Structure formats: C-alpha cells, structure tokens
C-alpha cells in the first residue's frame, strides 16, 4: 500500500501496539536486523570498559528486547515514547502481567551472544528481573519538540531504534528530530542508533507508516552536527532479508561518542 499524502498524525490515528508486536516481534526466530544490531550492541558494551549512570531508549514503542544487553551496564534506564498506548504495553511486561508480550526468545538470544553458550530458563528469568529493576521511569516524548522530554534532560547513553526515521517522511523534519534526539546525550556520552536505510514506509497489518529515507551519510552528518566525534563513531550499513517486503532491505547501525568539553 502506498502512502499518497503523508499524514503527520498517523501515529495518533492508526498505531496499535498489539498489531506492531504481532507483525514484527511474534516469530519463532530472530530477524536478521535484530541479530545484526544486538551483536554490535553486545560487542560494544563488552569491549567498551565503561558503565552508564543514566540511559534512555527513545521511541521504545511497545518493546523491551534492546534493554537485555543494556541492563548490566546501566545504573538506571528510562523508556520514552510518543504514545501512552506503547508505554502501557511496556508497563504490562514490567509488572509481569499474564497478557504481556513474551520477550523470552529475544532475551535468550542476547544472553547467548554474551556468553556464547546456551542460556537456561533460570538465566532468562534472572536477566528479566535485572531489566525490570533498571527501569526507573516511563516518559512521554515528542521529537518534534526541541526539548523532547522537557527541559534539561541528559543521559550518558541514548539508544534509539527506528524512531526519528519512522516519525516522519520528510528528511528535513528528520534532521530536526534527530537533532532533538541527540541533544539528550550528555557531553562524553554515547548514542546508539538503528535506522531503516533508504526506505519510504513500513507496513503494520494493512497500514503504512513513514520512513524518512535516510542513509549512512545523512546519519553521519547529523551526528557530526550534534557534536559527536567522527573519530569515535562507527557507522555500518547492513543488508537485511527478513523485512525486505514489509519495511526495508538495509539498515544503518551507528555507535557514536559525544565530544566532551573536558577532553584535551
Ligand atoms: C517503528 S516504531 C519503533 C519501536 C521500537 N523502537 C522498535 O525498535 O521496534 C516507531 C516508534 O516511534 C514513535 N514515534 C512516532 N512519532 C514520534 C515522535 N514525534 N516522537 C517520538 N517518538 C515517536 C512511535 O510511537 C513508535 O513507538
């Protein structure tokens, strides 16, 4: 289905967290975009030699799978999204309610990337507990605002997957949104971004949602403009098969450190 005229209120009007979870997070295998991203995330955290006092997932949607790798390395984790329906879905998982989405397969996958050995049900339960402990706030966030979380919010680690790129179909608006997103990163902090590459839209059930059709060069330029150090930025474009029909056939994974005024 084509988007004929981009509707800026599409998330308010058409988004359904259960439909999204069914379309993208209810398979009995790990999609190749998730495999690629979790591999980089685990490797970065294991090799980075640092921990992060305050971390945030911006545009988390109804998902928690990306917090698996973060949990041992962060003091506290905030989860932010534009829609309260998504945060309500997360709240169900945090409270271990029976109707919450089951993330066990995704959590097991990350544990096995970390240890290169089989994760047991007890290992999965222990990590779920840690993930729940680390979440200290659920926040409303609108990247169309220059202060998306309200004044002064800063984090040592900002993670965001398919958010600014999925919030608009205009590259101009995306530039403004990614700038707002990256402003949440403190000096000396790290941003970890997962974006659809050169795609205009993604399907959820029979509905089409936007992508801003960005590529690696757009993301590199946005990071540099927001004060990230190109010498401490890794940026990879990875081919994707799982979602080639529904969403994208390439992703960009960026891990970038922000300049610090204290650096020599
Ligand atoms: C494709 S989903 C990504 C969800 C999740 N991060 C993932 O990887 O599956 C896009 C998310 O962007 C959020 N979003 C849309 N417009 C936004 C805005 N203006 N500000 C912040 N988030 C927005 C939506 O609510 C939705 O959760």
Q: Mean pLDDT across all residues, rounded?
A: 96
Tally of extended strands?
9
**Global shape:** globular
User: Class in CATH?
Assistant: Alpha Beta
**SSE sequence, one letter per element:** HHHEHEHHHEEHEEEHEE
Fraction of residues in β-strands: 25-35%
Domain count, please report it: 1
Count of DSSP H/I helices: 9
**Helix content percent band:** 25-40%
Question: Which architecture per CATH?
Answer: 3-Layer(aba) Sandwich
| Ions and ligands | S-adenosylmethionine
Secondary-structure content class: alpha/beta
Low-confidence stretches: none
What does this structure look like?
- The structure is a single chain.
- By secondary structure, the chain is α/β, with parallel strands linked by helices.
- The chain has a single domain (18-45, 57-258), classed as Rossmann fold, CATH 3.40.50.150.
- It has 9 helices and 9 strands.
- A hairpin with a 2-residue loop joins strand 6 (201-204) and strand 7 (207-210).
- The longest helix has 17 residues, at 32-48.
- The chain is globular, with a radius of gyration of 17 Å.
- The model has no long low-confidence stretch (mean pLDDT 96).
- Bound molecules: S-adenosylmethionine.
- The site of S-adenosylmethionine has 18 residues, from loops.
